[in-house]
Design a protein that fits this description.
By secondary structure, the chain is α/β, with parallel strands linked by helices. It is built from 8 helices and 10 strands. The longest helix has 14 residues.
Length: 247
């Protein structure tokens, strides 16, 4: 049984995001799997999704994700983690096989904008590496520093503890950034289209989110606010992809 984990704490993402993650996995994973959602309250989700109470963790936002590295909380000795803010657009067999064959303790995404790992998709194993990451956070080891997100903290622990040999990255064409594709599309639309063909997963970070691409009004509102000169050139970019796969 393939173990899959997601996290939904607070009100940033409605329950619908978890349900649609499950639906996408059901279509794109060709083997039995169990999706466990770590959550701070009972949510209105299909019964096939296992809900695990994390209300006692008490961490801020996505820093709850670091708790998943605690070997006492892991649902199994090895699992795949997915953010809820992504779209699975094709069969995940290549990703699953890569994760199964890779001996590194942690597999993550190489961030598209910074020299850090991105934690939107990970293969985590119960290991000394995972526990070192968790203990560093639990013991507030870098108390004099502020990290903008969980992935920055995880990356810092790996580099400073000499654990880089235990980190591997998924191939760059497996998981694509919507924003990076959008920027490429503005300059080289054909190149962006070719890149999209091979991608299994589209990661959405910030705005717009997936529902914004299903509503012209929401799209214009989210895009015009930050990129007024691009709003109509970007018009509903990849909305057909979202409509087809995020359901």
């Amino acid at each position: 049984m393939l173990e899959v984990v997601c996290l939904n704490v607070g009100d940033q993402f409605p329950d619908l995001y978890v349900e649609r993650l499950f639906n996408m996995l059901s279509r794109q994973v060709d083997e039995p799997f169990q999706l466990t959602c770590f959550t701070d309250r009972n949510r209105d989700l299909p019964s096939a999704i296992k809900q695990s109470d994390c209300s006692s963790w008490g961490y801020s936002g996505w820093f709850n994700k670091v708790k998943l590295f605690d070997i006492d909380e892991m649902p199994s000795s090895e699992f795949l983690y997915f953010d809820v803010s992504l779209v699975i657009r094709s069969n995940l067999r290549r990703l699953i096989d890569f994760a199964a064959k890779e001996p590194a303790d942690l597999i993550a995404v190489r961030d598209w904008h910074y020299d850090v790992l991105n934690s939107c998709v990970m293969r985590i194993t119960r290991s000394e590496t995972s526990q070192t990451i968790w203990q560093a956070y639990r013991e507030n080891e870098f108390a004099d520093e502020k990290f903008p997100g969980d992935q920055n903290f995880i990356d810092a622990v790996i580099k400073r503890k000499g654990l880089t040999s235990q980190l591997q990255f998924f191939p760059s064409d497996f998981i694509l950034s919507y924003k990076s594709l959008l920027k490429l599309h503005r300059r080289k639309p054909q190149e962006a289209a070719e890149m999209l063909k091979g991608g299994m997963i589209l990661k959405f970070h910030g705005r717009p989110r997936m529902p914004d691409l299903l509503s012209p009004r929401a799209f214009l509102k989210s895009v015009t606010r930050r990129y007024p000169n691009w709003a109509f050139k970007d018009w509903m970019y990849l909305s057909d992809e979202v409509r087809e796969h995020w359901r």
